[in-house]
Every structure is written in structure tokens, then in C-alpha cells.
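INFO batch 0412 | record 1 of 1 | parsing
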Amino acid sequence: GAKPWTAIIPVALRSPIVRAVSSLPRRYEMVVFAARMIPNSFLRTGSPRKTSAEKLRVAYVLWRYPALSETFIRREIETLRESGMPVEVIALEQDDPPMSPDLLSPAGKVMYYGPADTSKGRESLRLWLRRKPVTVVKLWFFIVRRRESRVRTIWGDRDLLFGAAQLASVLEERGISHAHAPIATRHSLSAFVAARLAGARFS
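INFO prediction complete | emitting C-alpha cells
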């Protein structure tokens, strides 16, 4: 069978390293608790850039699209496009398994920026840190202090920030001025953080 990860650590260092790693979740809980003491006013990142109606570019930001359980979103997007609003659909990935085409409610053009990739997310975050270090730090604390999940890990929050940084780069490249996440999940939190990084409005 496969050897445990501790096998690669010298015996003299094995015990203290294992203790340090096993205590990470408890220590991160303390970080989360401390982050929740930060006033909301400190975490404000400034107002999104103002955009005229002529230059409005709206993006529906989704985890998976089109999804069998969310046909109402396709109808919503189809209606907005028919009304003349410039709506782009930006999704992390396709549904699993992918949906077959729907002639009554077509998905239309979709831009996929995934699947999730830690290395790409890390590189995107580095770029944003060089450009907007204070904003990135504030948004990191915003992610850490949220209350939507009881089970929290530093790795899960890190991946959320990585994904948001990757999405923010896409929003900026596409010239998106308003990001809309139709369902309130952790993916909409990622979209909110991405919009704040890219200077776009959010709903």
C-alpha cells in the first residue's frame, strides 16, 4: 500500500510537524473568531466604477451552466438578451454530465474559465496582490469572517480566494461592469469578491 505522508519526514522532526499540522484547524478557528471582530467599515473596498447605460456590460456568473435544475436561469438570460441587454454568461464549468441542447430555451454563448485550477488561481492572486494589495487583504478577511458555513478550513477559504482572483481577471478582460450571481451560494460569494477586485458592481 501507499506510505503515509509522514514517511518522508525525518524521524526527529516527525512528531512536532504532525502536532503542528493537526492543530491547524483549531488555530484557524481562532483566526476566524478574530476576523469577526473587525468592523465592517474597515473592510470596505471603495465604490465600484460608474458606467453609463451605453457601456453597461452584464455578466451572469455561475458555477455550472447550463444546469438541468436551473432552467429558469436560462429563460431569464434568454429574455434579457432578447430585450437588447448585453448579457454574457461566465461559468466555471459545464454541468456534469453536460446537458443536451434545448431548442425551446437555448443556453446561448457561454464563456468557461475553469475547471478550478489551484496554480492558475494562485498566479491570478499574485497579479492582483501586486496591483491592489490592500483590497486583496480586506477581501480575504471578508471571506474568513463570513458565517455561511460551520465547517471552515484555511484551504477551503484559500481556494475560494484563488477562484475569485481567477474570475476577477476574466471580468476585467471581458470589460464587465456588473456581475450578477442568481443564487446565493459560496460561488456567489466568490463572484462578489471577484467583482470587488475588478471594480464591477454586483448583485
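INFO post-check: Residues 154-173 form the longest helix (20 residues).
INFO record closed
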